[in-house]
Specification:
With 519 residues, the protein is α/β, with parallel strands linked by helices. Helix content is 41%, strand content 12%. The chain has 20 helices and 13 strands. Strands 2-1-3-10-4-13 form a six-stranded mixed beta sheet. It has a three-stranded antiparallel beta sheet with strand order 8-5-9, sandwiched between helices. Strands 6-7 form a two-stranded antiparallel sheet. Strand 6 and strand 7 form a beta hairpin. The longest helix has 26 residues.
Length: 519
């Protein structure tokens, strides 16, 4: 739901589905004017704040978007964008923040960028000015998101970003399976990993040319989706803080991980899992699912509608993919990480010296107001949404032709300046009662795992960490694939793998991370 497809792919997850809607945003607006910024140079009392904006070719920035015009009418603030292609965002961000003449607002900063640049002193400590941001304070308390927000703070305990937030965790990724085939072969919907194996094996026997299980793309994608149920996710690069011992552990050398790769190896060896499990592209995955070559996968639930439409056309009128609750494993029935903060807006530290600093804070505080949130999500009343008896909804015609496209066309649902996704809005954009029902079940049944705890490191420690993680992750990804595809034997090579990866730096990082937590 936004204008930035870059963010989601960086998080592993996902170039598809609803959160894909939340990707592709702002990048580049460098005023280069120092204290003589364009602020106050507009007509009347209009202020102009510069913003770094990430532009996406599928829905390029338009200064005449109705939402931006409404914003100016409401606030007397105009955003001056210097657009940069989203594919060039990371490089541009570094240049701009190191230039000494950064724009007033830096949009689309992910967690790694915030932690990296905050430690250099170029970002404003937002938490020092919370008394001037009552709307943000109110939303943090209302959404009970303090614990996750704490993961964005530095070792000094300060927050250096204005967070984009989801009001609620959404069950928008999970397993899906061909229910019409289960009905045809009198099979029950699987609820555990062993039941899943049994069901997929029978479907393989019914259609020997098929590979019942496939994967969106990449080993990390499957690990993010299935890992929580195996007790190996969500993790911070494989490291998880054990809540009982308050010590970090490297889960990719533990017994649960060993059983996870053993399970996948069994599926691959028996022809149940796609031999291209880790190498298929997203388009190839769609083709496999829509033509019946594969019948089970983890995916964004927003993909199911189109896959069913294609499947009914290509395979059978009875074709029916249905979303499932999490497939339970050693870690229980757990879905993907329930992150509700994906990125945010940074303010350069030098802004505090600008004569319009207080006005800038007034503006970003407004972005967290109900008025701004309605405008930035629902769009224009009686154009992109209607209101009846105090409840908002999208017009039926928009639901038929595409809700997200219509919102993009007016500048709404754009994470460059949108700061909150309300739950009701999210459900209406999905336009799928199944997602809402599963989300309610997820919250009621504790399907969402706790977010990964990030160790609080100094800038020197982070540099050491970066070097060690490069070697660790390179070895892990290589060996992970070899175990799954049977190129390495779990029976004879496991101990050697554990020894090698500890020597690559796991032991050093465990010592480093555990030094940051209290006994």
């Amino acid at each position: 739901m936004t204008n930035n497809k870059a963010t989601k792919s960086v998080r592993t997850i996902a170039k598809a589905g609803i959160l894909l809607l939340a990707i592709s945003l702002l990048l580049a607006a460098c005023s280069g004017k120092g204290s003589t910024s364009s602020v106050g140079q507009g007509t009347g009392d209009t202020l102009t704040f510069s913003m770094l904006y990430s532009d996406n070719s599928a829905y390029p920035y338009n200064k005449n978007w109705p939402v931006l015009q409404q914003m100016t009418e409401k606030t007397n603030v105009k955003l001056e964008m210097q657009t940069v292609p989203d594919t060039e965002y990371a490089g541009k961000l570094k240049l701009v923040l190191n230039s000494g003449s950064a724009p007033d607002l830096i949009a689309l900063m992910d967690q790694n960028a915030v932690l990296e640049f905050a430690q250099t002193g170029v970002l404003l400590p937002i938490s020092d000015y919370m008394d001037k941001l009552p709307n943000l304070q109110q939303k943090i308390e209302q959404y009970r998101i303090e614990e996750e927000l704490n993961e964005w703070k530095l070792k000094d305990g300060k927050l250096y970003v204005l967070p984009f937030m989801n009001e609620s965790a959404i069950y928008n990724r999970g397993p899906v399976i061909r229910k019409d085939l289960l009905d045809r072969h009198q099979l029950q919907i699987p609820t555990t990993s062993e039941e899943l194996y049994t069901v997929l094996k029978k479907l393989k026997e019914a259609d020997p040319k098929s590979f019942p299980m496939t994967n969106l793309f990449g080993a990390d994608q499957l690990l993010a989706n299935a890992g929580p149920s195996w007790g190996i996710g969500p993790s911070y690069n494989g490291f998880m803080l054990n809540p009982e011992t308050n010590r970090y552990e490297y889960v990719y050398t533990g017994e649960n991980y060993k059983q996870y790769v053993k399970y996948l190896n069994k599926l691959v060896t028996e022809g149940i899992a796609d031999p291209e499990l880790f190498t298929s592209s997203l388009d190839q995955w769609k083709q496999k699912m829509a033509t019946g070559k594969s019948v089970f996968s983890y995916t964004w639930l927003s993909e199911v509608g189109q896959l069913n439409a294609d499947g009914k056309k290509n395979v059978s009128p009875d074709f029916e993919l249905v979303p499932l609750p999490p497939i339970a494993g050693p870690g229980g029935a757990k879905t993907t990480a329930a992150n509700r903060i994906y990125h945010g807006i940074g303010i350069p530290a030098g802004e505090v010296k600008k004569p319009y600093f207080d006005k800038l804070l007034e503006y970003v505080n407004w972005l967290y107001s109900d008025e701004a949130i309605d405008m930035m999500t629902w769009g224009v009343k009686d154009q992109t949404y209607i209101e009846k008896d105090g409840r908002k909804d999208f017009p039926e015609e928009m639901k038929k032709t595409g809700i997200q496209r219509a919102l993009w066309d007016i500048g709404a649902s754009n994470n460059n300046y949108l700061m909150v996704f309300p739950y009701e809005w999210f459900m209406k954009t999905f336009n799928d009662p199944v997602v809402e029902t599963l989300t309610e079940e997820a919250n009621a049944n504790d399907w969402f795992p706790a977010i990964a705890k990030m160790p609080k490191l100094t800038s020197e420690q982070r540099e050491e960490e970066k070097m060690l993680l490069t070697s660790i992750n390179d070895l892990f990804l290589k060996v992970h694939e070899q175990f799954v595809y049977g190129k390495l034997s779990l029976d004879t090579e496991w101990d050697r793998y554990v020894q090698d990866i500890n020597a690559k730096g796991v032991s050093k990082l465990l010592e480093l991370y555990n030094s940051t937590v209290s006994e």
